[in-house]
Amino acid sequence: MATHQRIVDDSYKTPIQTHLNYKDKTAVVTGGARGIGLALARQVAELGGNVAVLDYLSQPDDEFDELEKTFGIKARFYQTDVTKKESLEQSFAEVVAEFGRIDGCVTAAGIVYDAPFLGDSWENVIRAQMVNVVGTYFSAQLAARQMEAQGTGGSIVMIASICAHQTLPTQHVSSYSASKGAVKSLGHALAVELGPKNIRVNTISPGYIYTAMIEGVMERFPSLAALMRDDPPLGRIGNRADIKGAVAYYLSDASSYVTGNDILVTGGLHVGR
Ligand code: NDP
């Protein structure tokens, strides 16, 4: 017969499907008009949530238009430059006017370029830091301000990169790596600062995920294309479906006690190749 004290706690009996339900909630996804961001916007819709996509492009990919019809949610697109204060603030204000609330924010807007460190330019470096760091910073700030005003808490998910952890010797991505390291550290700092408001902040560090961004890298560096396919212990390049689970977990109550965390979605590349 058990002699230990029995604790009274039935919280663990709530099914994971209940925690994952995002119905009546709204998430903002920056860079969500295509690529990884679009896949993550779709993930929000699949969970039953409304989604507001902010992106530099004038038009999102056609798949965006399917979201409302397919999932019975509200999906809106706001042409936004995340590096421009007025543009970002206006889009967040329009999101709040349209949806009435923000429960989640996923920052996927980002750029990469290749340049050897010794030949890199001020223009390149400043542009990359503006999009990847400053744009992420103020997107998170605007989302957190709204979450604080609502008093509901929320979840912020920022897309960093394996480059925040390691760089392959064949790559020339010093300024991109610096920017993604900053995003990862920002996640730690915001988790501490926003935790008392029940706003959770986490990052995802993808390895190589097949999108237009990576296709461009493969075209410029054919030798890297083979490495991207063969190097990960799982033996393949990632695809956008591989990222979706991490965002579903972070955005929803499935990760209600998780903040300041980084999930590496790399096919194992970060532990060995
Ligand atoms: P894509 O280039 O396919 O998509 C990025 C999106 O961000 C584009 O729609 C782009 O618009 C948008 N964007 C760029 N600049 C701005 C801006 N100033 N304001 C608003 N939107 C902007 O890239 P991925 O989907 O591959 O990458 C998404 C995120 O994941 C990025 O942060 C990237 O660094 C990160 N990542 C990607 C990896 C991969 O293997 N694909 C690996 C690790 C991290 P536009 O096309 O008009 O510039």
TrEMBL record:
InterPro entries: NAD(P)-bd_dom_sf, SDR_fam
Keywords: NADP, Oxidoreductase
Gene Ontology molecular functions: oxidoreductase activity, acting on NAD(P)H, oxygen as acceptor; oxidoreductase activity, acting on the CH-OH group of donors, NAD or NADP as acceptor
SUPFAM superfamilies: NAD(P)-binding Rossmann-fold domains
Pfam families tied to this protein: adh_short_C2 (PF13561)
Signal sequence bounds: none
Keyword match Protein biosynthesis: no
Similarity section: Belongs to the short-chain dehydrogenases/reductases (SDR) family.
Name of protein: Short chain dehydrogenase
Lineage, top ranks: Eukaryota, Fungi, Dikarya, Ascomycota, Pezizomycotina
